């Protein structure tokens, strides 16, 4: 089992697994571009727990998709080993005005798309405008709120051409914000802010990024063998010979396979058919002392999102929502049900993700827990909800990912 790793997920867990990653990484969180050794076959086999929901930069919202997009695309910045933004598509760090509202960014002139087209400032302008315009219906368009006119554009009140980004020249961008945003550098390293090739997007229309052949890429790898969002169970990342920093990229191929059962994934790993798998629950505990086992913290918060869109939805009742929340024993959930090192969440922000700029206090410590398991309160609010809703019982469906840990939850 030399030179292979099996990972036990240590996440901040609540109810439904969801999250995102940034930076050029494989599924384990390592920088895929610099993985591998010079004296071995440069192929890495990765197992992930579910199909990729979207390969479209404007539409992706999940961990699997972002892991792929981070390997095949590149933005202005990328995160280094310390999660600090560093220039990537940008030739150097942005020049920021004294009031923090204007970012002037020079692009590297040797960056190309996988079809040979140069990556220019216009690609960023187009990609950003495509993501925020209401027709795209991007769930992550709200992340653009700091950018001038972004919210008005998404609301349909302003034309996308009024977004606070413009190409000063082929290789210089000017970004204007609504207000100074200390974390804006981090957004520039997030896939929703990556460039898009307008010619390729428009040529493919509604089939853009539907398969790996219907897109072009500017990252260290290109997507290969991807046949459809939500259905394909095998795809690959192939080294991008057009990438400006291709000499740093050691791996030639990363093969990705969807395996939803942890036991099956472990068997593939032990048979040498997989180099990186994620273990959960009992298997993580059983393999904890194996020399190949690595426990890697991951900042993820899982939660129930209750559908309140319909006027007659019972979840619009506040007392029902409180009853459900008080009924969840989060400590028992992570220790007795998951048993994989996850910890109970105290709110939406995970532990170890953000800290006070004055004394470095973890946000979760400063904010305190807003969650509580209390059987008596759960019963109290449930009785109030039943009376207000005129019901004696309630049945509802839960839509969740098809993985071992989610099924247990």
Assign the CATH superfamily of the domain at 74-194.
Dipeptide-binding Protein, Domain 1
What general outline do the C-alpha atoms trace? globular
Number of helices: 12
CATH architecture of the domain at 74-194: Alpha-Beta Complex
By helix and strand content, what is the structural category? alpha/beta
Rg from alpha-carbon coordinates = 23 Å
Give an account of the 3D structure.
A hairpin with a 5-residue loop joins strand 5 (95-96) and strand 6. Residues 1-37 have low confidence and may be disordered. The chain is an alpha/beta fold. It has helices at 63-72, 121-132, 150-154, 184-187, 198-204, 262-270, 281-286, 318-327, 330-338, 363-367, 375-389, 404-408; strands spanning 5-13, 43-48, 77-79, 85-87, 95-96, 102-106, 165-169, 172-176, 221-224, 234-239, 253-258, 276-279, 293-298, 343-344. 24% of the residues lie in helices and 16% in strands. The strands form 4 sheets. Strands 1, 12, 13 and 14 form a 4-stranded parallel beta sheet that branches. The chain has a domain at 74-194: Alpha-Beta Complex (Dipeptide-binding Protein, domain 1). The chain is globular, with a radius of gyration of 23 Å. Helix 8 runs antiparallel to helix 11. It contains 12 helices and 14 strands.
């Amino acid at each position: 089992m030399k030179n292979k790793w099996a990972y036990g997920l240590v996440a901040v867990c609540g109810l439904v697994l969801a999250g995102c990653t940034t930076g050029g990484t494989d599924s384990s969180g390592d920088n895929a571009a610099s993985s591998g050794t010079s004296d071995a076959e440069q192929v890495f086999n990765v197992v992930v727990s579910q199909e990729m929901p979207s390969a479209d930069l404007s539409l992706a919202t999940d961990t699997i998709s972002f892991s792929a997009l981070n390997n095949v695309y590149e933005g202005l910045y990328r995160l280094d080993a310390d999660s600090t933004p560093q220039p990537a598509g940008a030739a150097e760090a942005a020049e920021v005005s004294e009031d923090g509202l204007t970012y002037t960014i020079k692009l590297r002139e040797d960056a190309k798309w996988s079809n040979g087209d140069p990556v220019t400032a216009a690609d960023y302008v187009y990609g950003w405008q495509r993501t925020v315009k209401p027709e795209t219906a991007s769930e992550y368009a709200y992340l653009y709120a700091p950018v001038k006119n972004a919210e008005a554009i998404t609301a349909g009140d302003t034309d996308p051409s009024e977004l606070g980004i413009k190409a000063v020249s082929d290789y210089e961008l000017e970004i204007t914000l609504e207000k100074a945003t200390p974390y804006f550098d981090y957004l520039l390293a997030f896939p929703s802010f990556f460039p898009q090739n307008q010619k390729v997007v428009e040529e493919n229309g509604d089939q853009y990024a539907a398969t790996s052949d219907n897109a072009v890429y500017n990252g260290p790898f290109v997507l290969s063998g991807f046949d459809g969002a939500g259905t394909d169970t095998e795809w690959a990342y192939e080294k991008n010979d057009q990438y400006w920093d291709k000499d740093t990229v050691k791996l030639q191929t990363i093969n990705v396979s969807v395996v939803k059962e942890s036991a099956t994934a472990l068997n593939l790993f032990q048979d040498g058919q997989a180099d990186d798998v994620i273990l959960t629950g009992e298997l993580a505990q059983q393999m904890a002392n194996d020399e190949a086992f690595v426990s890697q913290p991951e900042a993820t918060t899982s939660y129930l999102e209750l559908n309140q869109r319909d006027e007659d939805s019972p979840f619009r009742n506040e007392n029902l929502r409180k009853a459900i929340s008080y009924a969840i024993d989060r400590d028992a959930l992570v220790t007795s049900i998951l048993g994989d090192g996850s910890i109970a969440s105290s709110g939406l922000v995970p532990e170890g993700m953000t800290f006070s700029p004055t004394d470095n206090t973890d946000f979760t410590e400063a904010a305190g827990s807003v969650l509580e398991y209390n059987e008596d309160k759960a019963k109290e609010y449930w009785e109030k909800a039943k009376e207000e809703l005129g019901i004696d019982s309630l049945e509802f469906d839960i839509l969740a990912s098809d993985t071992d840990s989610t099924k247990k939850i």
